[in-house]
Amino acid sequence: MKLITAIVQDEDVNRLLDSLVEAGYRATKVASTGGFLRSGNSTVIIGVEDHLVDDVIRIIDRNCHTRVEVVNPLARMGPGEFYMPEPVEVQVGGAIIFVQNVEQYLRL
Ligand code: 2BA
Q: What's the rounded Cα separation, in Å, for the pair 48 and 51?
């Protein structure tokens, strides 16, 4: 068995959960925050048999889209002094996916 952890954008998560449930998968959504942008994203955890991993990844791929975010970095000039450099574009993924082996899966 594998544990798939997918970090996706909030805009995509409900559609993704609908598609997963419709296809018969069990999934858990956890609210999360990206370390770089410090804005909300969603982490979806899905436990599946090994042979179903590719199908789940296909469903994630179909439902999660890459977007460009414009961020305004705040740069420090000296103690207490800041300036606003040009906004920069950051491409935020469709999804970041980790696949890990599961030692035990218990439903009590
Ligand atoms: P954030 O950390 O908020 O990152 C948002 C986007 O900013 C990233 O998109 C990437 O394009 C850019 N970025 C992140 N760190 C950067 C850095 N040190 N320098 C320059 N640009 C940087 P994605 O790569 O698609 O990641 C989307 C979200 O997935 C991330 O949000 C984070 O929450 C998660 N993530 C990505 N890679 C991860 C990893 N190796 N481990 C844990 N979480 C990860």
A: 8
Q: Where is 82: in which H helix or E strand?
A: strand 81-83
Ligand 1: which of 32, 38, 92, 97 to mutate, judged by most atoms within 8 Å of the beta carbon? 92
The string of pLDDT tens digits covering residues 7-19 is: 999 999 999 999 9
Mean pLDDT of 78-88: 77
Q: What separation in Å is there between the alpha carbon of 103 and the centre of ligand 1?
A: 28
Q: Is residue 52 part of a domain?
A: yes
Q: How many domains does the chain have?
A: 1
With contact defined as beta carbons under 8 Å apart, do 53 and 84 qualify?
no
pLDDT at 76: 64
Quickly tell me which residue has 């035990």 as its tokens: 104
CA distance 60 to 50: 16
| Domain CATH for 28 | 3.30.70.120
pLDDT of 82 reads: 73
Residue 17 falls within a domain, yes or no? Answer: yes
